[in-house]
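Section 5.1 Outputs to date
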Amino acid sequence: MKKYFLPLLILTTLLFACKKDIMENDQSATLHFSNDTIIFDTAFHSIGTPTQTLTIYNRNNFTVLTDISLNLINGGSFRMNVDGVAGNKHNAIEIPAKDSIFIFLEVTPNLNNSSNDFLLTSNIEFTTGTKKQDVKLVSPGRNANFHLPHDNIFPTDDGEVNYGYYSIKDDEIWTNDLPHVVYGYVVIEPNATLTIKEGTQIYFHNNSGMFVGNPLLIGENGVPPTNNGTLIIDGSLGNEVIIRSDRLDSWYENTPGQWNGIHFVQGSVENEIDYAIISNGTTAIRADSVANSNPTLTINNTIIENMSSIGILGQGANITANNMVISKCGQYTVACNIGGTYNFTHCTFANYWDYNHRNTPSILLNNYYEGADGNIYIRNLDAANFTNCIIDGSLSTEVSFQEQELGEFNYTFDHCIIKLDPTISTDNTHYENVIINQSPKFVDAYENDFHLKENSPAIDAGNPLISLDDIEDNSRIIPDIGAYEFQ
């Protein structure tokens, strides 16, 4: 028998050595957490938040088993996933000694009441033996007016076709009682006007936007309906109309390309934008040919920033803009394309795009297009007038001239600071009292602060015949160039 005793002793020792050292139910074990409180970014009612991660550490010398439960205080607004398994209650979750697990958390606020802002709170409870611990959850929420797609039936030769969008058929007013959240497209129909009052906040979901005028009603001959929708944005200094994406978390605060922009369709005329801040889209404003002499759009005291493509795209349009600031666009700040009439006064176009490489200048002037048949078609650039404007950016030249000599190509730069190809002659009637290739000396161009430093060449260098208070309502006696008067 003795010859079997030693192997049996070794085998028994090995088995016990491999057994996990797990706490007993009547023991007390403490867990540690990456945060004692998880605070989510503000989210709209019914719109989910980005995922937050909570790490649970077992710093003990033994494996623990813990029960994890999510307290559903707010009707299921919070959701939990423990190491890849969804559910609000998990029993006997094993955490090895000196190891950790992850909990993934999301919130979809569903507290719908009359107040604008609300706060959701909950907690995750951990029971580890006789030890109870918790981590608090806090989620700020906002209620909103939601504008959702609905059915719009159009007759066809084969029957009917249904387009889903939010249709405005009569005059409508959006106020600042609650934010406005848009899913899909808003379409302002012919003979209808949408008026947006001061202080209103409009949030567009991904791939959403607005058509001012109905593009589906433009006939095969390209003739639009009369008065094809009108938009009036009536903001004020300190109560600007905010237009941006619906992602409120800090990661997306300055991210471009999150929504599709505002498109003024052919036949839409007499549109007005005053004191708006438009950000984080693709092309902020696109205005198509009006096919008459009425102005397409007048813009005053407005900021456009962080556009993945273009700030203002005019296509044979009639646009007047005063005291505008357009910055950080992936392509052009302003494209005066396929002709039209454009007048910009006291505007700052500063394209310090820093998300990826940009190879198009801030300003495009063009008077033709190439058709699908390969032929060139002339569209006269009747006027592109820049007065007391700054045109600047990170490229060596910030103006592109695309001229077809058979058409009209009329433009002027009057008392402007321009970053221009030095080989271009400015000794002609297109340029009057211009400052070429000098830094305007902004306070911080990359942080979108386009106020002027005290040594800026723009100070007192504007056309004195222009009487126009600046974008912050400061009076101009001897005007500075750009949207901001030095104070």
